[in-house]
Amino acid sequence: MIKISCPMKQDFIIEIVEGIDKYKYTFEKKEGINLFFAVDAQDMEDAIATAKAAIKATEIGSVLYFSVSVA
Question: What is the pTM of this model?
Answer without folding.
Answer: 0.93
